[in-house]
TrEMBL record, chain A:
Main location: membrane
Species annotation: Liquorilactobacillus ghanensis DSM 18630
Pfam families, per the entry: BPD_transp_1
Keyword vocabulary terms for this entry: Cell membrane, Membrane, Transmembrane, Transmembrane helix, Transport
Protein's name in the database: Phosphate transport system permease protein PstA
ABC transmembrane type-1 domain ranges (all copies): 62-280
From TrEMBL, chain B:
Keywords: Cell membrane, Membrane, Phosphate transport, Transmembrane, Transmembrane helix, Transport
UniProt-listed InterPro entries: MetI-like, MetI-like_sf, Phosphate_PstC, Phosphate_Transport_Permease
Name by which UniProt lists this protein: Phosphate transport system permease protein
Species the sequence originates in: Liquorilactobacillus ghanensis DSM 18630
Gene Ontology biological process terms from the UniProt entry: phosphate ion transport
Residue ranges of every copy of the ABC transmembrane type-1 domain listed in the record: 86-296
């Protein structure tokens, strides 16, 4: 009998713990969403921010976040694609490959603030770029590379060797086999990973404070020449992103409606992450269906 | 020239394609390795300068309690006592891991052993979503919910190690949970079946078989969570109070390596003692993350045996 009672007590405890966790997390998320969602309006999403008066928006910051994400993906995707192909297809099994793998693992576990400081030292100070979008994008690339590389490697290794043998048997070169046969089959997994990584990049702040900077200069949305300093596309302008904005207004404490703006921005960030998660799943499934002609996964 | 001879003696189109592919993929991987090496080189060279160029005492750095790098102490060495920050960082990390581990394991066990398929999928997507929530959002939650909560229920200003560890608890809980779930799922099914067939109750099976065989995976999950907590900058910085003094208790303002680093880098001039001392803190962070990595590796190796 004793063991049965023990069993019941233990299992109930586990259930309570799980319930408690869901409750805590739901409470915190709900708190932010309830405080933030009413604050989201078209004006809030598009208006420029105010430093000392209330009623400012997050328009510039939102644009900066999206632009930075776009740049980061453009830089990091090709590099991690090559690196992933190397690890999955070309890497010989030896000491050197093991070291490379370890280097990638170390990079992925580095605190993002250290990555940011390195970007600050190398690009902002040594190369004299100043606080700029491009420095931020490169710092975020360092941050994104290891995850993306590992994801691409995993997606490629998941493709059965039969496909590679078929390609070789047709007399294709290994490179052709990889790019024309293996890669398309691995594409759904890769896209899912890219989108999930995008969610992470979108909310990153610590790596950006000292690379992309903490000031949102006024940008002129009618000026699309990338060389003009007021242009949204200018690579050398400092660009405060949404996540950095939340941090800055909370630690400076000069904005009268800082908590409302942060709640609104936090809600936007959470919704964006939710959106990225959904998009990853939908895109992955849709691509898988299209490329493999299966009806359901 | 004879076409056949030409074909045999020159490299084929396929060989050239393969060479191109090799060059491309090798250069990508080389670039990543180069990035890692240069991060280590730059941070280390800056961090060591405190001791070589500015004649800081390494022992003072590790055990001194006064952090004021611009001022020299009686011996003419800069005051670079980093102990308050080191204590702060370890304090919040260990406390957060202590809070989070039972909750994470409980939730993971519920998901893998007790929940229905639908409940499991629901929890899974909640956890996945929470892993992706940006850390500043957690910091803001800490500022607007946890700091007032601590102030009202425990006293003090609300800023301090306790609030910091609560924020980190919320932050690393999903990370540890999802990794623990993975390691519980990889326990072979027949272990469980064999145990149940012997007449063990569900709890006995969980406690004596499943948890035991997933131990190394769970430990890895906890260390990953700790590494994330140790390196987290902004969420902690927002709630810990940022006073570079020895914390008297869990409720008094304290600081971590990352919080002093984020606050200070913008206010010091490159190449000065004050700046170099901050880079030494960054070096400590770097070495700690390396240590966490090595720990994970050791545990993984032990788990495989």
């Amino acid at each position: 009998m004793k063991t049965k009672i023990q069993n019941r007590i233990a299992l109930t405890t586990i259930r309570i713990i799980a319930l408690l966790v869901v409750f805590i997390l739901m409470f915190l998320l709900g708190d932010i969403l309830i405080a933030g969602v009413p604050h989201i309006s078209w004006h809030f999403l598009t208006a420029p921010s105010q430093s000392f008066t209330s009623g400012g928006g997050i328009g510039v910051q939102l644009f900066n976040s999206i632009y930075l994400l776009f740049l980061t993906l453009i830089i990091s995707f090709p590099i991690s694609l090559g690196a992933g192909i190397f690890l999955a297809e070309y890497a010989p099994k030896n000491f050197l490959t093991a070291t490379v793998r370890m280097a990638i693992e170390v990079l992925s576990s580095l605190p993002s603030v250290v990555v940011g400081l390195f970007g600050f030292l190398l690009f902002v100070v040594q190369m004299k770029m100043g606080f700029s979008i491009i420095a931020g994008a490169i710092a975020l690339t360092f941050f994104n590379l290891p995850l993306l590389t590992r994801n691409i490697e995993e997606s490629l290794t998941a493709v059965p060797d039969l496909q590679r043998e078929a390609g070789m048997a047709l007399g294709l070169s290994k490179w052709r086999t990889v790019t024309r046969i293996v890669l398309p089959e691995a594409l759904p997994g890769i896209i899912t990973g890219v989108v999930l990584g995008a969610g992470r990049v979108f909310g990153e702040a610590a790596a950006l404070i000292y690379t992309a900077g903490q000031s949102a200069t006024n940008i002129d949305f009618t000026q699309w020449n990338p060389l003009n300093s007021a242009s949204p596309l200018n690579l050398m302008r400092p660009a405060e992103t949404l996540a950095v904005h939340i941090w800055k207004i909370n630690s400076e404490g000069v904005m009268p409606d800082a908590s409302a703006v942060s709640a609104g921005s936090s809600a936007v960030l959470i919704i964006a992450v939710l959106f990225f998660n959904l998009l990853a799943r939908l895109l992955g499934n849709a691509l898988y269906r299209k490329l493999t002609a299966t009806k359901n996964r | 020239m004879d076409p056949i001879k030409n074909k045999i003696q020159n490299s084929s189109r396929e060989t050239r394609q393969d060479l191109l592919g090799k060059i491309l993929s090798y250069s990508c991987i080389l670039l990543i390795v180069l990035v890692v090496l240069s991060i280590f080189f730059f941070v280390a060279s800056k961090g060591i300068a405190t001791f070589t160029v500015d004649h800081g005492n390494f022992w003072t750095f590790l055990t001194g309690k006064t952090w004021n790098p611009i001022v020299n102490n009686a011996k003419g060495q800069p005051e670079i006592g980093a102990l308050p920050m080191i204590v702060g960082s370890f304090g919040v990390t260990i406390l957060a891991a202590l809070f989070a581990t039972p909750f994470a394991i409980g939730t993971a066990l519920y998901m893998t052993e007790l929940a229905s398929k639908r409940g499991e999928r629901l929890l899974q997507s909640v956890v996945e979503l929470l892993v992706g929530i940006p850390s500043v959002v957690y910091g803001f939650i800490g500022l607007s919910v946890i700091v007032p909560f601590v102030r009202n229920h425990f006293g003090g200003s609300g800023y301090g190690i306790l609030s910091g560890s609560f924020v980190l608890f919320v932050m690393i809980l999903p990370t540890i949970t999802s990794m623990t779930v993975d390691s519980l799922r990889s326990v072979p099914r027949f272990y469980k079946e064999a145990s149940l067939a012997l007449g063990a109750t569900k709890w006995q099976t969980i406690y004596k078989v499943i948890l035991r065989s997933a131990t190394s995976g769970i430990l890895t999950a906890i260390i990953f969570g700790m590494a994330r907590a140790f390196g987290e900058a902004l969420a902690v910085q927002m709630v810990i109070g940022n006073a570079a003094v020895m914390p008297k208790n869990l409720l008094s303002s304290a600081s971590t390596l990352t919080s002093i680093l984020t606050m200070g880098i913008g206010n010091t001039v490159m190449g000065t003692v004050g700046n170099n001392a901050l880079w030494s803190l960054a070096l400590v962070l770097l070495l700690m993350s390396l240590l966490f990595n090595i720990l994970v590796r050791l545990i993984g190796r032990k788990g495989r045996m």
